[in-house]
Design goal:
The protein has about 500 residues and is α+β, with helices and mostly antiparallel strands. About 5% of the residues have low confidence. The protein starts with a helix and ends with a helix. The strands form 2 sheets. A 6-stranded antiparallel beta sheet has the order 3-4-5-1-2-6. A 3-stranded antiparallel beta sheet has the order 7-9-8.
């Protein structure tokens, strides 16, 4: 069967419910396939053979520093890391280090297999807590030190991660040296290539993606679905010891410990410099994601200048002020379908210069997106409300007199939403805008990845960036409008201080 057929079967199986999957397995093992009544006759009995674990030596009297090279078997070009590890690390700790070294997220099961021969799936293995819960018997990885297995240069240990993609790594001891008690328990001193992507189809899928990138970094040869699946700006050739060191520094830390390092106590309600609306995300974030959010917050607060002049405030306030003043005391009359009447649409279209950003006559709101978008934002911000066929000013809007008051009202309400996770997505969009210097729909891919890393799902693979795009659209519109970007202009500016300033006011209204 070719790769396409295998992938089709994989997708079909992933789409089955538990009951459907049980039925398929019963059909295979119990009968219905072929003259022999299926594969039931060949099914293993209740007793199964467990390869015997070789006798392990006692740990050395004094631990040493072990220099190992870890290769992802079968990856082309080679993917490897050189690590200096404390010899008295337990294998469950080595697992966390390997996850950090290759940038994996620990989404799947894993196993260690002793050397010297490579006997993955056929030889003995060390048990994880999951294996123990499944009733297996043997030696727990958390009870085995690394230096019980790697003693002399050339000794080998094997590690498999994700029993679907089957990333098997060979860990080979290169040198044994004195242990510096002041040094980190794991240091990366070298390597090559970025770690393989989670769930990319194992070594064959990884090699195919890398080959396509090396031939053409635009990846035009890949189908659109696979291109869209890849992380933005994915470069499989990138490797940085600094990035690996940063991930290794988080190994063993809890989210609360990371938050304390970042200035928060880790207690409910205390998020330090984090926007308060991020607390639900911090409650479920693992340490690496909490650290990433901490770096993002720091950049959002400091990366770009964001002073606003009177002219800047006028530009931010102008579209909202125009529509509120257009409503006046009597309001803006609506058609039977609920749209603003043509004369009001056309006046807004012309006087705000929206005709430079759209096509058509600009006299029908349902066909004039910039006007409809502005009107929708004014309603969501609580500046206008529908009442008896008219758009009326709210009490809030009647109390606004200066451009700065309009900007403050916009910032105070921009990120609020009744749905917690839609609000979190909007906060992340504002953070990325302040950190990167401009609002961009490209931020949605990053937001989707962060939410997925926190265990959230809107699709089988995690949070779909298309869903994020829908959630953050009001925030994007307001920040884009503040920057003076046009709806039809997809190039955008490299940096805009007005968008940054508005995002910061919305994120930290007390400062």
């Amino acid at each position: 069967m070719g790769d396409d057929g295998t992938e089709e079967i994989r997708r079909w199986v992933q789409g089955l419910s538990k009951d459907e999957l049980d039925g398929v397995l019963q059909g295979i093992l119990g009968g219905g396939l072929g003259r022999g009544g299926g594969l039931g006759a060949f099914a293993p009995g209740p007793e199964r053979h467990t390869p015997e674990m070789p006798e392990l030596p006692d740990p050395p009297d004094e631990p040493s520093a072990l220099t190992v090279r870890v290769d992802v078997d079968g990856a082309k070009p080679p993917v490897w890391r050189r690590l200096v590890l404390d010899g008295d690390l337990m294998l469950d700790e080595v697992h966390e280090i390997l996850q950090a070294a290759f940038g994996w997220q620990d989404y799947h099961l894993h196993k260690f297999w002793p050397g010297p021969q490579k006997q993955v799936w056929t030889g003995p293995s060390f048990l994880t807590e999951f294996d123990l819960s499944e009733g297996e018997e043997g030696v727990l990885e958390s009870e085995v030190q690394l230096d019980q297995l790697l003693r002399e240069p050339g000794d080998r240990l094997f590690y498999t991660y994700d029993f679907g993609d089957d990333w098997t790594c060979t860990i080979r001891l290169e040198a044994v040296g004195p242990l510096d008690e002041d040094s980190p328990t794991a240091v990366c001193t070298g390597g090559r290539m970025a770690g393989p992507l989670e769930d990319c189809g194992g070594v064959p899928g990884h090699n195919e993606l890398v080959a396509a990138y090396l031939e053409d970094p635009s990846l035009r040869a890949l189908d659109r679905e696979r291109r869209d699946w890849l992380p933005p700006d994915w470069d499989p050739t990138e490797f940085s010891t600094d990035e690996v060191a940063e991930r290794l520094s988080l190994v063993g830390l809890s989210t609360e410990e990371v938050l304390r390092q970042l200035g928060a106590s880790g207690e409910p309600g205390d998020t330090g410099q984090f926007p308060a609306a991020l607390e639900p995300l911090l409650d479920i974030a693992l340490a690496p994601t909490a650290a990433e959010l901490g770096r993002l917050v720091e950049r959002a607060r400091t990366e770009h200048p964001a002073e606003l002049s009177a002219e800047d405030l006028a530009q931010i306030a102008r579209p909202y002020r125009f529509l509120v003043e257009l409503a006046g005391e009597d309001g803006i009359p609506l058609t039977a379908a609920g749209w603003m009447k043509p004369a009001y649409v056309e006046r807004t279209y012309r006087e705000l210069g929206l005709d430079e950003d759209w096509i058509g006559k600009g006299n029908r709101e349902d066909l004039t997106a910039p006007v409809a978008d502005l009107r929708s934002t004014c309603q969501e911000l609580g500046l206008l409300r529908k009442y008896k066929g008219r758009l009326l000013r709210t009490k809030l809007a009647r109390g606004l007199t200066t451009d700065e008051e309009y900007a403050d009202a916009l910032a105070a309400r921009l990120l609020h939403h009744r749905d917690t996770w839609v609000e979190v997505a909007g906060v992340l969009f504002a953070l990325l805008t302040a950190a990167e210097g401009r609002p961009s729909f490209g931020h949605c891919d990053t937001i989707a990845r962060i939410l997925t890393d926190c265990g959230l799902r809107t699709a089988p693979g995690g949070v779909d960036s298309r869903h994020v795009t829908q959630w953050v659209r009001p925030v994007w519109s307001a920040l884009r409008r503040a920057a003076g970007e046009r709806l039809l202009d997809r190039t955008g500016r490299e940096q805009d201080h007005r968008a940054v300033a508005l995002a910061r006011r919305a994120l930290w209204p007390e400062t």
